[in-house]
Design a protein that fits this description.
Keywords: Glycoprotein, Leucine-rich repeat, Membrane, Receptor, Repeat, Signal, Transmembrane, Transmembrane helix. This is Leucine-rich repeat-containing N-terminal plant-type domain-containing protein. InterPro entries: Leu-rich_rpt (IPR001611), Leu-rich_rpt_typical-subtyp (IPR003591), LRR_dom_sf (IPR032675), LRR_N_plant-typ (IPR013210), LRR_R13L4/SHOC2-like (IPR055414). Residues 32-70 form the Leucine-rich repeat-containing N-terminal plant-type domain. The chain crosses the membrane at residues 689-711. There is one protein chain. This protein has a domain at 451-662: Leucine-rich repeat, LRR (right-handed beta-alpha superhelix) (Alpha-Beta Horseshoe), CATH 3.80.10. The protein is of the alpha/beta class. It is globular, with a radius of gyration of 36 Å. Bound molecules: 2-acetamido-2-deoxy-beta-D-glucopyranose (NAG) (12 copies). One 2-acetamido-2-deoxy-beta-D-glucopyranose (NAG) is lined by residues 95, 116-117, 119-120, 142.
Length: 735
């Protein structure tokens, strides 16, 4: 009885205990489960990974996918990633999750907008929504209610609203990243209230207006990335008061004005202000604090740097002032601590003077760790020092388009790391130096537009097996083109134009594989720690073109403006990746190779100013990419083939000054049923030409021997031409 009494007491008190403490938890958990199930039901679709999400299963909520609970069995983290889910957040009852600390929605198919209700997640510390390109609208103002938020990452969304000023209410925020979510409008000054912020990344949006001066209030900031927006106006001076700032990226905006000398006092490691409209002199001293390692200031309007600008920079590794208006001599600028420097570009400025010091050394030789040096397109003159070849880390050297002169002092050593050597458009003299023989890893060699002379050595392909790009144009090279040139297995661009080369074009293309198929690699980009745009000049569609970066898939041969003779080798037609071929202005004779139509990627073909004979091969109709053609000033005759793409080239001058071409865009061919006197003689001429062409095209030799036999009889010869003519007529009908 006593026992029963006790038990009764226990039974009476237990529900009380349950009611008093456990029930609200159970109710809360049930509400969370209901909210998730309701949201799931609202989706257009959700994959099997959400199978556990059902009320029948609500007792085990904490074991549902994508959910992590706290010790009180409330959901503390909802992390949906890579789920095949399609739907909106409209039916998501955020107020059901007052305990939620982390919400991650990564790579989902969410569309619609971010609901204002998100402001009810009052315990939230981490919020990350990544890659939902159909999520539109603005960041709701209620975001300001997330008082505990420390991390807000919204990346790769399709938003199209502004950054609300309530962002300033998130005073516990440490990391704010809004990357490529296409925010519009300006950065609200309230951002300065984020006194705990360490990382601010607003990259790749459509932000306009100026950078608010209040940004200088974010005293804990270490990383500030605002690149790729439309920010304008001057840089607020307060920015340099951010004593903890290490990385600042403002590139690709429309910022103007000068850079305050206070930059020198900052503790920055890395400053990137490229592609803006900054101007004036660069600050006289940028390394007072002494930690700077990279200054990327290309594509602005800076007019000068001070001699002592880099004086105390003991850690400087990268200096990029490409494409400014800098008028300066560089010789003293890096004299103090040159050994750290790895990357230096002053390309496209007005840098003048020489690279040699008074003692004939030049100053760059103390930059023993240089990887990349680009001084192209400046006004430098004088000779080069031998010491270039001792820079054992050098991978990229571009001195093109200056006024350097003299013999390039190649030494017997060439550092194996050297991959890009660009000396074009100077006044260098001397021969194709044996010193290059050791540069075994060279991929790009441009000596064009100088006064180099002598022959092209036969060792070049054996010694430089990695070469992709070889340009020797506009020099005074003479002699024949060595047949070894066709031993380059990786060459994609060969430009020997405008020299004094003679003899035939070598013709065994078996090993010349670099152009044998479409290439999609980006071999003309240089990237080390720092990716860099390589500029190489090629003549493309009769216009000089400075190729900025990536000539993905570019393949071409230019042998124009020499004195090359004999036939065009049929082997060219095996170079299926070829996009341009220029053989103009030589003494080439014979016919155009029959199989030229194989070159379906060929966009530009110039065979003008030679002595080519015969008809234009029917295969021309297959040149489906051709957009630039010149066959003028040859001895071609017959009907111009018709093809869909060829038809678009309707400028008659591209066929002008030949023996007798007819058909669109020239005059119609006169019907052969009423041959005029001229036609008859032309026909006779054509017969000999056909004969000739089959020899030139290297028609299958067995067949040729057979025909040779037949041709002894005039009758057979006549029927053969009849046959050929009929074949042509047939094909014309098909076209
Ligand atoms: C998502 O659902 C909407 C509406 O049913 C539909 O228009 C859209 O194509 C779906 N998207 C995907 C990626 O399935
Ligand atoms: C919070 O949720 C309630 C519904 O539970 C809603 O009425 C309210 O608008 C939400 N608060 C905000 C700021 O959106
Ligand atoms: C952002 O700018 C780009 C380029 O100007 C434009 O195409 C796009 O529509 C803009 N997006 C928004 C949301 O304004
Ligand atoms: C954002 O995009 C939506 C849908 O495309 C459009 O209705 C809305 O007007 C846009 N808002 C802004 C501020 O551009
Ligand atoms: C939130 O931000 C708005 C706009 O900046 C401001 O007016 C409001 O006072 C802030 N609220 C709180 C509680 O700080
Ligand atoms: C924030 O920055 C502004 C402008 O630089 C300044 O006037 C103000 O005093 C700063 N506020 C705080 C709290 O530091
Ligand atoms: C740099 O800091 C020093 C010491 O604090 C100060 O004297 C000097 O004026 C500052 N220079 C600039 C340009 O702000
Ligand atoms: C470099 O440091 C020295 C010694 O501290 C100082 O006298 C000089 O002014 C500094 N130069 C520059 C350009 O910062
Ligand atoms: C290069 O370094 C050497 C040895 O450290 C030094 O004697 C020489 O003056 C430096 N040359 C230049 C141009 O700074
Ligand atoms: C140069 O090329 C050789 C192979 O030809 C390779 O073994 C070597 O690692 C390369 N050196 C550099 C520095 O790239
Ligand atoms: C190039 O150098 C040669 C020989 O030194 C000289 O005759 C010629 O004038 C120079 N050409 C230019 C454009 O400087
Ligand atoms: C192609 O290269 C191989 C190997 O180097 C060589 O033996 C062969 O003679 C070359 N063929 C031609 C046609 O040059």
């Amino acid at each position: 009885m006593k026992h029963l009494h006790l038990l009764g007491l226990l039974l009476l008190s237990c529900p009380c205990l349950l009611l008093c403490t456990v029930t609200p938890v159970v109710v809360g958990i049930r509400r969370e489960a209901e909210a998730l199930v309701k949201w799931k039901a609202s989706l257009d679709s959700a994959d099997d990974s959400f199978g556990s999400w059902s009320m029948a299963n609500s007792a085990s909520l904490c074991r549902w996918t994508y959910i992590t609970c706290d010790s009180a069995r409330h959901i503390k983290e909802l992390s949906i990633f890579k789920a095949s889910l399609n739907g909106t957040l409209d039916e998501f009852d955020f107020s059901a999750f007052p305990q939620l600390k982390s919400l991650y929605l990564l790579d989902t198919g969410l569309y619609g907008t971010i609901p204002a209700g998100i402001g009810n997640l009052t315990s939230l510390v981490m919020l990350e929504i990544h890659r939902s390109p159909y999520l539109r609208g603005a960041i709701p103002r209620s975001i300001g209610q997330l008082k505990h938020l420390a991390l807000l990452h919204l990346t790769f969304l399709g938003l199209n609203g502004t950054l609300p000023e309530e962002i300033g209410n998130l005073t516990k925020l440490e990391k704010l990243e809004l990357h490529s979510v296409t925010l519009t409008g300006s950065i609200p000054p309230t951002i300065g209230m984020l006194g705990k912020l360490q990382e601010l990344r607003l990259v790749g949006n459509n932000l306009t207006g100026s950078i608010p001066m209040e940004i200088g209030n974010m005293t804990q900031l270490q990383i500030m990335e605002l690149e790729s927006n439309y920010l304008e106006g001057q840089l607020p001076g307060t920015i340099f008061h951010l004593v903890k700032l290490l990385f600042m990226t403002l590139s690709e905006n429309q910022l103007v004005g000068t850079i305050s000398p206070e930059l020198g006092n900052s503790s920055l490691w890395d400053i990137d202000i490229a592609h803006n409209n900054f101007s004036g002199l660069f600050p006289p001293s940028i390394c007072v604090a002494g930690k700077l390692s990279a200054v990327s200031a290309g594509h602005n309007g800076f007019t000068g740097i001070h001699r002592q600008t880099f004086q105390n920079c003991t850690t400087l590794e990268l200096v990029d002032f490409t494409a400014n208006n800098i008028v300066a001599e560089l010789s003293d600028c890096f004299s103090e601590h040159p050994e750290q420097l790895k990357t230096m570009s002053f390309s496209q400025n007005q840098v003048h003077g020489t690279l040699l010091t008074d003692r004939g050394e030049d100053f760059l030789c103390n930059c023993t760790h240089l990887h990349l040096l680009d001084l192209s397109n400046n006004a430098l003159h004088g000779g080069l020092s031998k010491c270039f070849w001792k820079l054992q880390y050098l991978q990229f050297l571009d001195l093109s388009s200056n006024s350097f002169s003299g013999v390039v002092p190649f030494s017997t050593t060439c550092q194996e790391r050297l991959k890009y050597l660009l000396l074009a458009n100077n006044n260098f003299t001397g021969t194709f130096s044996l010193g290059l023989k050791k540069c075994r890893n060279l991929t790009t060699l441009d000596l064009g537009g100088n006064s180099f002379s002598g022959t092209i050595p036969s060792w070049v392909s054996m010694s430089l097996p990695e070469l992709n790009f070889l340009r020797l144009s506009s020099n005074m090279f003479d002699g024949i083109i060595p047949h070894e040139i066709l031993q380059f297995r990786q060459l994609q661009v060969l430009d020997l134009s405008k020299n004094k080369l003679t003899g035939p074009i070598p013709d065994d293309f078996t090993n010349f594989t670099g152009m044998a198929q479409e290439q999609n690699n980006n071999d003309f980009t240089y990237s080390d720690a720092y990716s860099y745009q390589v500029k190489i000049q090629i003549v493309w569609k009769n216009a000089d073109r400075l190729y900025i970066v990536v000539i993905a898939g570019m393949a071409g041969i230019d042998l124009s403006g020499n004195s090359l003779s004999q036939e065009i080798p049929n082997g060219f037609t095996t170079l299926l990746g070829l996009r341009y071929l220029n053989l103009s202005g030589n003494h080439l004779s014979g016919c155009i190779p029959e199989d030229i139509g194989n070159l379906v990627l060929l966009e530009s073909l110039d065979l003008s100013r030679n002595q080519l004979r015969g008809e234009i091969p029917r295969g021309f109709a297959d040149l489906k990419s051709i957009s630039n053609l010149n066959l003028s000033t040859n001895m071609l005759s017959g009907r111009i083939p018709m093809g869909d793409q060829l038809r678009t080239l309707d400028d008659p001058s591209i066929y002008s000054n030949n023996l007798g071409l007819c058909g669109s865009p020239l005059e119609d061919c006169v019907s052969s049923s009423t041959p005029t006197q001229a036609e008859t003689s032309l026909d006779e001429d054509r017969e000999t030409l056909w004969f000739y062409c089959f020899v030139a095209a290297g028609f299958i030799s067995g067949f040729w021997l057979y025909l040779g036999f037949l041709f002894r009889s005039e009758t057979w010869r006549y029927s053969f031409y009849q046959y050929v003519d009929n074949m042509q007529a047939k094909d014309l009908i098909v076209w």
